[in-house]
Amino acid sequence: MVISRRDALKTIAATAGVAVVGAGAYGYFDERHQLAVERTDVPVRGLPAPLDGLRIGFVTDLHCSRWTSPDDVHRAASRLNDEQPDLIVLGGDYVTWGDRRFVHASADALSSLNAPHGIFGILGNHDDDRDMPAALISHRIAVLKDARTRVNINGVAVNLVGIRFWTKRFADIAQLVRSPSGTTILLAHDPRRLTEAAALNVPLVLSGHTHGGQVVLPLVGPVAAQKFPVVAGIGMRDKTTMFVSRGIGTVYVPVRINCPPEVAVLTLRSA
């Protein structure tokens, strides 16, 4: 039996369509719920010896919404608590599109977080400047909104600097990160701030925003996130190390493919 070129193309197209539908269904019903704990050693240039081994819990891009429930957020918080990190950082985007219906639900779901050296959060591009910070602060989560704070850990000063998604001017960032002493960690929702951090010799940056690409295609990669210097995991530029988390929730489409949600536990190591 001879199959015409037209029939062959129709068969290929139909097979591809079935594959796409199947992958989408898997990404919706299964993978977006496969919460992983990512334990990673992070090399940091000039890290003082007393901070070698410091464990930072990092959760970002919760996107509490109709697709990522408060129970999903609470589960992520519980998984992170189980790891008993020394310090916890929240990377922003607690809700989607600033939806105020989920502001308090998201903050309430994070209320169980606990770490001996505190819990610190920043804001993402989906968060408003008033209600979301107030909800987090009500649960003793410090919000660094273009601000810095100093934490003493093992007798060493750690400067935590948090900037908003919209803070991009080099001079504004430089004013915040400059410090006469201590190790500085920049908390920046957008990984594109690696450029400014490297120019300012910031040793470590923690970011989210990319969702790890959310949909990572075989041979193609994370199409939606290729504009970022680091899409997921560890990247380095000059003397600066960046870690980008895949986050918890989703945006645009409630699907994850080859990119499961994660809570990260980062162990700092001298480089």
The largest pleated sheet is described as: 6 strands, mixed
Main sheet strand line-up: 1-12-2-3-4-5
The percentage helix is 10-25%
Q: Rough shape?
A: globular
Overall mean pLDDT stands at 91
Number of DSSP-assigned strands = 12
Instruction: Find the structural class using helix and strand composition.
Output: alpha/beta
- Separation of the first and last Cα atoms: 65 Å
Task: Assign the CATH class.
Answer: Alpha Beta
Under CATH, the homologous superfamily reads: Metallo-dependent phosphatases
Order of helices and strands: HEEHEHEHEEEHEHEEEE
Computed over alpha carbons, the radius of gyration is 20 Å
Beta-strand content bin: 15-25%
Total number of helices: 6
> What is the count of distinct domains?
1
Which CATH architecture would you pick?
4-Layer Sandwich
Which stretches are low in confidence, meaning pLDDT under 50 for 5 or more residues running? 7-27
- The CATH topology is Purple Acid Phosphatase, chain A, domain 2
